[in-house]
Every structure is written in C-alpha cells, then in structure tokens.
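#onboarding

Welcome to the new folks! Below is a worked example of what a typical request in this channel looks like: someone posts a single protein sequence, and someone else replies with the predicted structure as tokens. Don't worry about understanding the tokens yet, we'll cover that in week two.

Example request:
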Amino acid sequence: MRVLMVEHCGRSGMYAYADSLCRGLCEVGADVTVLTSSAWPDKPAPFKVEKRLSEFTRQQGGRSRLHWAADRICRSSLNSIRRNRFAVEGHFDVVHFQGAGMPLLDQFFLKPLAKKLPMVLTVHDVKSHYDRFVSRDSFFKRSLHIPHCLIVHYENGKRQLVDHWDLSGESVTVVPHGIMMPLHNPPDKAAARKKLDLPSDYRVLLFFGNIRPNKGLDVLLKALKDICVDNPGTLLVIAGALPRGMSFQPYSEIIQRLNLSDNVRAVIEFIPDEDVDCFMSASDVVVLPYNEFEAQSGVLLRAYAHKKPVVVTNVGAMGELVSTDKVGLVVEPDMPEALAGAVINVLDNPGKFQSCYTTGLEEKYDWKNIAALTISSYEKAIAIKKQF
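Example response:
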C-alpha cells in the first residue's frame, strides 16, 4: 500500500509522532512518503521525505499581527495547492493527515482531494487549544466531515467527535498513541542531572511542554508549596516554550509569593528533540496538571518510554490512559490540594507505579501494532471511497 503522510509542521511533538508511526507502517509493509516542511530533521529513515511545504514562523518579528496572519494564510493556501497536486500526481492509495491544518482553508481545499483519493485524518485535538478565527468551530466541523475516516487516540475522544461534531461513529476509529521512544540512548539519571546542572540529592518533578494557560502550571505551583512541606528536598523543573505573546511573569509572581525560588528551576525556551530525553531521565515524577485538554499527550507517552511514574489530571485521554495502565495517579483538574497529595503519594511509593511498566504494556503501545491498526483504517477509507 502506497501511503502519503502529510505532516505540515516538521518539528516538535507532531514530527516525533509522525516519524514513529511511519517507521511502524514500513515495518508492516507499507510504502510511505512523508510530505512536510523544511523543518523535518535530516536523518536516516525507511520512508521517503518530501520537504515541499513552506515552513511557518512562530514569531512576528517586526511585522504587525495582521501582516503575520496574512502571511500564514497565504503560506497555508500555497501549501494546500502543492499538497493536493503532489498527492494526485503521486497516485497514492491513501492520504493520511496528521492533525487539522487551518480549518478555514481545509473546508475548501480538502474536498477536491477527497473526491480523488481515500483520505484519513488523525484528530490529535478534538477541540482547538486556541479560540482563533481560522479554526472556529464551524470551519473545524466542516473540515472533519470531509475525510473518509478519522482516527482518534481515546474512547472519550470518539464520543466527543460523534456527539459534539455530529460525526458518524462508523467513520471514527480509536487507535492508541504509541510510546514516544527516546531518539538516542538517553543518559541515566545521574548523568542527566549533571548535564542539566540539577542537584543529585533532590526529588525532581518535571512539568514539560508548551506552557499554555490550559496546562495548569499555576495549580502545580500552588500544590508545590504543600509538597515541599512534606518533602523539603523537592525541585520542580519547568521546561518548555511560551506561546507567542505570553509572559512567564504571572508564574514568577506565584513563585515569589509562595517563597518557592529554591524549589523551582525554569527553562523557558523551546527544547530540541535531542534534549527532551535528558529532562525525562533527570526526573523522578512527571506531572501534567492540565485544566482543559481534549487530546492525548505526547509528553505523557514520552514519560512512558522512560518508565516514569506520572501524576495527571482527568482531562482528555490522560486520565483514561493512566487509570487503565496504573503507572501513576489521576486527580481532578484545578485542585491544588488533591494534586499535592497525589504527588506526595507517588514520591513515597515510586516502585509501586514503575512496576506496572511491563512487557505487555510496551507491546500495547508498540508502533508496529499501532501501524497495523492504522492500516485497517486505510482499508476502511479505501472501501468507503469506492462507494462514491
């Protein structure tokens, strides 16, 4: 089967996911071509990579917001035209999109492509993280109704697609998110802490990823005060970039107000893929205290790869996953006291949760198995396309 994998970004979590999935697809016999941007790293792969899409800039630079937005719309339009032409001329058996692009444009550009080729869309975010005109609900809903099949990573996500976006359950398949394996041989805990200049005798909590308002960092900082009363030698490492236009100042004020300066290390910048595993290795517990989230977390699956105990909130797919796999504890969102209690529990009983990282769990999220389930979605999309 000839598969065209469309991944517009070429970096960060979406790149890591697409790369792992494509390697799994090649293992089960698929002939895969990735269509992406110039940001996709140059490294050996068993699939072809076509860097034909324009890369988006995260920063406005000296441009006005209107100029920056217009540039993104123009680039997205050109990318859509190039993508459709490449897909049709390549005579692929199926086109698989990783995440919605720009729904404002997708509602128009996906339709002609779906008339020519079977189309599958992995819906990583059941609802958008941001309230933006280009991804308003009406545009997003129309875009979701165009592909022949949709993939989502968790059962509640499927229910939301059916109930909230008025989709047929027959068109939605649940395929788990695979474990995000380390890119290289990661350092052990001692070496990782030395590289990051972290104390060797502290218990390290890790909050990793883009620091969006919905991630609940403010809640974690409030919980940290109680955690440090019970465990004075605790250090919270915050590692990740801020969205455009946001400041870390509100979090700094909480840190100062609660006298937590000695218990927090903040690395507020984009963390390259090759450094992610160093932060994971250095930690004792990964904490994801999100307030609102309608997706699966690549950070969580990276913690799985390092067999780290986790504490997560019951939002998106995270609560469903951790409750089932028993590799940590789940609390309700926006509850600092409950979050503190859960973190203390995990710090006091790390072996209890690490022991749940079994061979069976690894097989459950192995990319070869994920790829086989994905192939089944391709076959369904091909069958549906033949009916029209």
